[in-house]
Every structure is written in C-alpha cells, then in structure tokens.
Design a protein that fits this description.
Pfam families: RVT_1. It comes from Aegilops tauschii subsp. strangulata (Goatgrass). The protein is of the alpha+beta class. Strands 1-2 form a two-stranded antiparallel sheet. A two-stranded antiparallel ribbon has the order 3-4. Helices cover 37% and strands 10% of the residues. It has one domain. Helix 1 runs antiparallel to helix 2 and helix 2 runs parallel beside helix 3.
Length: 134
C-alpha cells in the first residue's frame, strides 16, 4: 500500500532519498558540471529540512541548466518532482539583468531578498532582533 504520512519509516526514507539529491549535486560539482560555490573551500550547495529544499548555484545558463537536469533526473528516479510554479529563485549577489536568462531557464518566479526559509528571515544584512519574534 505504500508509505503514508506518519509512517515510522518516513523520516529514514526521506533522509536516504534527499541524501541522493545532495550526492548528485556534489558529484556534478566534482565533475565540473556545476561551478564550485567558493574557490577555496567546499560549501554545500543544498540545504534540506522536512519538505523544504534550498539549492545554491551560480546564476549562469550552464549551472541552472545542470540543476534543472539533476532535479528532473531525481524526479524520474524517485517520483518526487519539483513544482517550479511554487518554487522561487533569489539572486544573492550580481546583476539581475545579467542573470535573467539563467533564472528564466528555471521556470520559477524571481523573488528579491529578504526571503524567509523555515520561518527565519534571510538577508544579506545583519538581521534585526525583531525579525526573530514569532
């Protein structure tokens, strides 16, 4: 009958499944399909928590095309598909006009900083204490 929400195996299966996505992204970086995020040290390109996923990549046609292909491969393998209409892209640094073709390729709306992830405001500036009040 498959798995249902609340099944005791669900958390372990989620971890195994999402670990595969992280490994696919790391391998793509090792093979230089994706650009390394930092020139001197490895930085994770994915953050996973519950059903929330944040991916980091350079806003280039090559990187966004590779990320989209990896997500499609992952979806075919596991049956977990990204709803790009419910997703968003945020440019952390750079020129929005230069990044527009790469972001358009993802097929999701662009959202400007600050954004909220898991209820926490993400910004490029030092966060203000009131931002953390529920």
């Amino acid at each position: 009958q498959g798995l249902r929400q609340g099944d005791p195996m669900s958390p372990q299966l989620f971890v195994l499944t999402m670990d595969t996505l992280g490994r696919l992204l790391r391998r793509a970086t090792e093979l230089r399909i994706l650009q390394q995020l930092h020139p001197q040290r490895p930085i994770p390109s994915v953050s996973l928590y519950a059903d929330d996923v944040v991916l980091f990549c350079h806003p280039t046609l090559g990187d966004t095309s590779a990320v989209r292909s990896i997500l499609q491969l992952f979806g075919r393998a596991y049956g977990l598909h990204v709803n790009f209409l419910k997703s968003s892209a945020t440019l952390i640094r750079g020129d929005a006009e230069d990044a527009a073709p790469a972001l358009d390729l993802l097929g999701c709306p662009m959202v400007e900083m600050p954004i909220t992830y898991l209820g926490i405001p993400l910004t490029l500036r030092d966060p203000l204490l009131p931002s953390f009040n529920p």
